[in-house]
Amino acid sequence: MIPVMIPMLGEEEAQAAADAVRSGWVAQGPRVKQFEQEFAATVGAGHGVAVSSCTTGLHLSLVLLDLRPGDEVIVPSLSFIATANAVRYVGATPIFADVDLATGNLTVDTIDAVRTDRTRAIIAVHQGGVPFDTAAVRKAAADWGVALVEDAACAAGSTVYGQPAGTGAAIAAWSFHPRKVLTTGEGGMVTVDDAEVAVRLRRLREHGMNVSAADRHASSQPVLEAYLETAYNYRMTDIQAAVGLVQLGRLAGLVTQRRELAARYQELLSGIDGLVPVRDPAHGTTNFQSFWVLIDRPYRTGRDDVLAELATRGVSARRGIMASHLEPAYADVTPGPLPVTERITRDSLILPLHHKVTEDDQQFIVDILRELA
Question: Transmembrane ranges (predicted)?
Answer without folding.
Answer: none
